[in-house]
Write a structure and sequence with these properties.
By secondary structure, the chain is α+β, with helices and mostly antiparallel strands. Helix content is 45%, strand content 13%. It has a three-stranded antiparallel β-sheet.
Length: 92
């Protein structure tokens, strides 16, 4: 059985993440500045680190996937694709 993955080459820079989506993005980028492994997470990790219920995590991930900010390289695994918020902070 083939596993369906979701990746996108286009990032919607105009997408405005919700507060819940911001929490998920923060989980993905946590550790980047201190040379810890970062960029990947499972739904279980999201629920543990954000206190969001699984159904909300899945719903919010769908929005991030659709915007191209997050990819799903394997079943149950999510990876930060690009964070346009960084560009907004460096330009402003």
């Amino acid at each position: 059985m083939a596993t369906r993955t979701q990746t996108t080459d286009m990032v919607n820079e105009n997408f405005a993440p919700s507060d819940r989506q911001e929490k998920l993005l923060n989980v993905l980028i946590d550790g980047r500045d201190d040379e810890s492994p970062w960029g990947y997470a499972t739904v279980k990790r999201f629920t543990e680190e954000t206190d969001l219920r699984k159904q909300y995590v899945n719903r919010e991930l769908e929005g991030l996937l659709g915007a191209g900010w997050v990819e799903k390289p394997h079943r149950g695994l999510y990876r930060v694709n690009e964070d346009p918020r960084e560009n907004a902070h460096s330009e402003g």
